[in-house]
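fold description:
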Amino acid sequence: MSRAEASRAGAVPEERSGRRWRLSLFGSEVATVFRRWRTLVLLGVLAAVPVLIGVAVRIQTHDGGQTARGGDGQGPAFLSQVTNNGLFLVFAALAATLPFFLPMAVGVVAGDSVAGEANSGTLRYLLVAPAGRSRLLLAKFTATMVFCLAATLVVAVSALLVGMLLFPLGEVTLISGTTVSFGEGLLRGLLIAGLVALSLVGIAALGLFVSTLTGSGVAAMATTVGVVITVQILDQFPQLHAIQPYLFPHYWLSFADLLRDPVYPDQIWRNLGLQGLYAAVFGSAAWARFTVKDVLS
């Protein structure tokens, strides 16, 4: 065998080994996120929110299934229809957790991703391995996005189970007045859960960037959550209507358009485009900062 052939033969196992190592890096980051007690507490709180909403609606129901006082359409979105169809508890729970609970949970996980490692002194040991800073940062962002999806599904599944236990199920009357089968309603609920998870991409990138600026996990988490709350407050002032379409939470509730027939996707696409823009801007800023960050001091 020639030297070139031997070199190529040796390169194949090395390439496979490198691919396995990269996959193990991503898997290790995901496992690290879900092993932390803080993550489990956050998921537990998210799972409890639909239970509280369902029990509250049930208590306010006059006769075990008929629409309660909020059923005349005066109550919060989706809540007035929960007593008629338990599937609407999924939509109500996602709408209730998206403004605060879900962003707070993602902000905590994203803010702690790099700063927490730096604070505990494990970041320097991670960089000793042949991962490279860019690949490690990408692994941490991927792990945060996995958490976004897991958190959203926890809310949706919890709400579905509570809705099945406390309220009747059946055909779904969309907010546009069209009636669809329960299966199609369930499919729309799954699509909504995915859209809600993608709506948190901007926060994940923002939290990752903040996490690269400090060595304190607590400071990074508090800053990220504080920014999220501040931006949502700014999104409520009519005087700031010129900048509000550029704030990441502005189109969060656009998922309601998936409950129309036909679906009007304009707001949905704007939401996804805005989240992609935030991911690109803050992801690039996080990479630029992390590649020059001093992790030895």
User: Anything to note?
Assistant: The two ends are 49 Å apart (CA to CA). Residues 60 and 111 are 39 Å apart (CA to CA).
